[in-house]
Amino acid sequence: MVNDPLVLTNVVASTAIVLRLMMFRKPGGKHNWWASWLAYLIILAYASVPFRFLFDYYLHVHWASVIINLIICAAVFRARGNVARLFQVLRPE
């Protein structure tokens, strides 16, 4: 296993993003197909990080990637996992 703090931080941030998006539930809310598909694609992309780490294929990460992923993680938690709230600019009024 890798003991690089940047790798471990990125794995934790990616796992947190995936879990928060997977646990999103909006009771009584309107279904947005584009937000669902976007959340699905984000989950697929970020889920690859912990899986690659578990199988020892994730050895190096750049510090800029870690910072970007931490910002995205904070934004996902701020939006409570609601991808549509992350991209309110794209929603018609």
Low-confidence stretches: none
Beta-strand share of residues: under 5%
What is the 3D form? Answer: elongated
Summed up, the domain count is 1
Main sheet?
Answer: none
Count the DSSP helices: 4
Tell me, rounded to a whole number, the average pLDDT: 89
Order of helices and strands: HHHH
The percent of residues in helical segments reads 55-70%
Number of strands: 0
Alpha carbon gyration radius: 14 Å
**Termini distance?**
49 Å
Instruction: Name the structural class.
Output: mainly alpha
Transmembrane segments: 6-23, 35-55, 61-79
Pfam families: Phage_holin_3_7
Organism: Dryocola boscaweniae
InterPro entries: Phage_holin_3_7
Give an overview in words.
It holds the Pfam family Phage_holin_3_7. Keywords: Membrane, Transmembrane, Transmembrane helix. The chain is built from 4 helices and no strands. The model has no long low-confidence stretch (mean pLDDT 89). Helix 1 runs parallel beside helix 3. It has one domain. Helix content is 65%, strand content 0%. The protein is elongated, with a radius of gyration of 14 Å. It has 93 residues and is mostly helical. The chain starts with a helix and ends in a 7-residue tail after the last helix.
Descriptive keywords:
single chain; 93 residues; mainly alpha; 65% helix; elongated
Secondary-structure map:
Elements: H1 5-22, H2 33-54, H3 63-78, H4 83-86
Helix pairs in contact: 1-2, 1-3
InterPro entries: Phage_holin_3_7
Transmembrane segments: 6-23, 35-55, 61-79
Protein name: Phage holin family protein
